[in-house]
Amino acid sequence: MNAKLDSGVATRPVTRQTFDEVLVPTYAPAAMVPVRASGLDVWDQDGKHYLDFTSGIAVSSLGHCNPVVVEALTRQANTLWHVGNGYTNEPVLRLASALIEATFADRCFFANSGAEANEAALKLARKYAHGKFGPHKSRIVSCYSSFHGRTLFTVSVGGQSKYTEGFEPLPPEINHINYNDIESARAAIGDDVAAVIVEPIQGEGGVIPGDIEFLKTLRELCDKTGALLIFDEVQSGVGRTGTFYDYMNVGVTPDVLTSAKALGNGYPIGAMLTTNEIAQYLAVGSHGTTYGGNPLATSVALAVIEQINQPAFLARVREASSKIVANLEKLAADYPQLFTRPRGKGLLLGLPMADGYKGKSKDYTKVAEKLGLMLLIAGPDVVRLAPALVVSDEQIAEADRIMRQAADAFLAG
User: Fold this and answer.
1) Which of 33, 42, 157, 368 could disulfide-link to 50, CB 3.0 to 4.6 Å?
2) Which residues pair with 34 in a beta bridge?
3) CB neighbours of residue 116 within 10 Å
4) Positive or negative CA dihedral for 74, 5, 291, 205?
5) Binding site annotation covers 297?
6) Does the annotation flag 289 for ligand binding?
């Protein structure tokens, strides 16, 4: 028998302990609970202020509660929310047109997340390969230490065993190569490969930029074998590396590109971009989604890309990057026992821990958080910085001050 829902449930007091009582334990969130935010400023339940250099894992690139995005969402929320995929809608048509005008693509498919965008890309690759060449062409090649999502297919493609243990049997016909290893790629990519999927800069794998020659070789091998080259730009896309998408930095054009995270600035949306020739293999009924491309998400995404995909905005991203990198270089030089030289692109940056402190990146970020700076990790050995793209010089200086204070406290502790 169902009990009547308490009328006060919406205002019931909740704490971090409530998480441990009511949610499936797939995460281990911080002790503090954010309740309010604006730009890069966040406040927790106790009113404590934090400077956010995570942007929700490279998501809120225009900052929290960006007024232009809020206005777009509010306007659409008072107009049309959802129609289902038996109908199209004006916002999704405008967003698709804008993405096509800004990229190599001719066609878009919209989903709700990066995992779903990658799932669609991988399904498209198999469908294309089987339709054009036959069922023998099925193999997917990915890189070790990559990350492409948490569905069974995408997590298997990801190449990190810690995410697949206990979920066997895994989908077959998936192989992995070493990132930035040209010889490994040449050995693996043969005529039976349907697709090669790669992050132009590995995010979760340690913030490791792809070598230009490695990415060019993947393009050449795909051209030679008829495989599709998929760029996973879920984390690197929408201005994060200083160009609208990172493939524009490296000068290698993929056949399929996936996008999410910053595309919605926190509103769930994913996108798969491809060409006319390839898109035709996902015919009516071959793939779908209930919520993907709904008017709310696509209105938000259009407002996001209209702000980010501007020359002056992207130039400022590159300028902010150079300032943060200079600070991190000096931090590593001043604390050589703790850090080594930073790496990354744009405002997706990694600060590796020195040999004596490998495995301690999370411990360092916890100290920084207590001092009021929110940071990420990229595995156990790398501190990751992914601030909103609108970060100011004053906020860059404040983050540097707190990171130094955290380094002193960490070493003393």
Assistant:
1) 42
2) 44
3) 25
4) positive
5) no
6) yes
- Summarize pLDDT for 220-243 with one digit per residue, the tens: 999 999 999 999 999 999 999 999
- Give the model confidence (pLDDT) of 38-91 as tens digits: 999 999 999 999 999 999 999 999 999 999 999 999 999 999 999 988 999 999
Annotated ligand binding at 204? The verdict is: no
Q: Cα(396)–Cα(384) distance, rounded to whole angstroms? A: 14
Q: How is residue 90 written in tokens?
A: 């004006």
Torsion angle of alpha carbons 166, 167, 173, 176, nearest 10°?
-50
Q: How far is CA 241 from CA 181, 245, 347, in A?
A: 22, 7, 6
Task: Tell whether residue 160 is among the known ligand binding residues.
Answer: no
Q: Is 205 known to sit in a ligand binding site?
A: no
Q: Where are the domains of the chain?
A: 9-60+311-412, 68-308
* CATH code for residues 68-308: 3.40.640.10
Map tokens 């984390």 to a residue. 235
Query: Does the annotation place 405 within a ligand binding site?
Result: no
Q: Is 337 annotated in some ligand binding site?
A: no
Query: Is 235 annotated as contributing to ligand binding?
Result: yes
Return the CATH fold of 9-60+311-412: Aspartate Aminotransferase, domain 1 (3.90.1150)
DSSP annotation string for 9-56: GGG----HHHHHHHS-SS----SS-EEEEEBTEEEETT--EEEESSHH
Is-above-0.90 flag for pTM? yes
> How far, in Å, are 154, 257, 306 from residue 289 at the CA level?
17, 18, 25
Any known ligand binding at 150? yes
User: Is 70 among the annotated ligand-binding positions?
Assistant: no
